[in-house]
Specification:
Helix content is 65%, strand content 7%. It is of the alpha+beta class and 400 residues long. It folds into three domains: 32 residues; 222 residues, Orthogonal Bundle (MetI-like fold); 68 residues. Strand 1 and strand 2 form a beta hairpin.
């Protein structure tokens, strides 16, 4: 007896279309495409209306202004610049000044925040109370007021150039800034610089090897002595062998100000101090909470093996706490970078002051200038987030 076969009638086109419309994946794609199209149309309409209004008022648009001569000076420049350079050059000067204060602030705030956060957990009552007072004071005072404090109440109260506070005959501090010797590179200095770079790279490689060795055998490598030998000793040997090709240019008082050497303007110092101290108060609480989140049994187990408190903190507690610390720490780095735009209040020549301030007032092309400024801060934030996410992924707990 032959088995019976059931034939399924082919679906009509209308039935297939109805099934496709009820498909969640298909509908989600369609709705997203519609949303993106509507959003693009919305922004296109806004930009088109703005450009039409600007054209009706006779206001130029486009980025041709970047090639025009700026005609104004900037107090701090990390690249060559004078009044004859273009507005495009002012953009790069402001960008580098913003990056400078952001990087300095992040480094100082991280170091200070970790120190204060660990001190907050100290068994010494005085150290713990001092850290708590620091946190409660600086995180509850507005950042702008702290910038004003360091600039007007501290740095502007320093003596004039002729009555400078000095350390020997090399370092001078006055109301105009901090002055110290600048290195002068002569013939053969490239060898010394190359030795230093090689020492840094070699130290990193040895550190990676030492970490892998410790994981496999439990033996530790004296990285402090090896690092000092490679980073300090090797360049010093190269410096002596090449006949000491690097000299120093000392600042000298000429007229009403110092000439030569390296100078740190008070605006940079005040802004860096305020950003670092303010952000460090938040980082300290993040570090404290991260350390407290580590199971206390880990500390007891390490101490039962004879590890002192300092090594227990370094080798056991901090590595585990970093998994909790990094995500909120990233947010503080982003906040510090964006808060650097308050530099305009004291005249520090950052991107907002130089480009979105002076340049905008002279050329009047607000859309292009503000869009470029916003793009810079967005890029800096995305790069910072990407780097911190990579580090977070590296220290994350790997499931077996």
């Amino acid at each position: 007896m032959k088995p019976t076969t059931t034939q399924v009638a082919p679906q009509s086109k209308s039935a297939k279309s109805a099934n496709l419309l009820y498909n969640p994946t298909f509908r989600s794609v369609v709705f997203q495409v519609i949303a993106v199209f509507a959003l693009g149309l919305f922004f296109y309409t806004i930009v088109d209306n703005a450009l039409s209004n600007l054209a009706a008022r006779g206001i130029a648009t486009g980025f041709d202004f970047l090639d025009q001569e700026a005609g104004f000076g900037i107090g701090l420049t990390l690249i060559e610049y004078d009044e004859t350079f273009s507005y495009g050059r002012t953009f790069y000067v402001g960008l580098l000044n913003t990056a400078l204060v952001s990087i300095l602030g992040i480094v100082l705030a991280t170091v200070l925040g970790f120190v204060i956060g660990i001190a907050r957990l100290s068994s010494n009552w005085l150290v713990s109370r001092f850290a708590a007072v620091y946190i409660e004071i600086f995180r509850n005072i507005p950042l702008l007021l702290q910038i004003f404090f360091w600039y007007f109440a501290v740095l502007q109260a320093l003596p004039s150039a002729r009555q400078s506070m000095s350390l020997g005959e090399a370092i001078f501090l006055n109301v105009r800034g901090l002055y110290f010797p600048a290195p002068v590179f002569g013939e053969g200095s490239n060898v010394v610089i190359g030795a230093f770079i090689f020492g840094v790279i070699a130290t990193i490689i040895v550190k990676i090897w030492a970490n892998n060795k410790q994981k496999l055998t439990g033996q530790q490598t004296p990285m402090v002595r090896i690092g000092l030998g490679l980073v300090v000793g090797l360049p010093l040997v190269a410096y002596l062998v090449m006949g000491m090709p690097i000299s120093a240019e000392y600042p000298v008082l000429k007229g009403f100000n110092f000439r030569g050497g390296i100078s740190i303007i008070p605006e940079l110092a005040a802004l860096t101090l305020a950003l670092s101290i303010y952000t460090a108060s938040f980082i300290a609480e993040i570090v404290r909470s991260g350390i407290n989140a580590v199971n206390h049994g880990q500390t007891e187990a390490a101490m039962s093996l004879g590890l002192p408190r300092s090594r227990t903190l370094k080798l056991v507690v901090i590595p585990q706490a970093m998994r909790i610390i990094i995500p909120p720490l990233t947010s503080q780095y982003l906040n510090l970078t964006k808060n650097s735009s308050l530099a305009m209040a004291i005249g520090y020549p950052d991107l907002v002051s130089v480009f979105a301030g002076t340049t905008l007032n002279q050329v009047g092309q607000a859309i292009e200038i503000i869009a470029m400024t916003m793009g810079v801060y967005l890029t800096l934030s995305l790069v910072t987030s990407a780097l911190m996410n990579l580090y977070n992924k590296k220290v994350a707990l790997v499931e077996r």
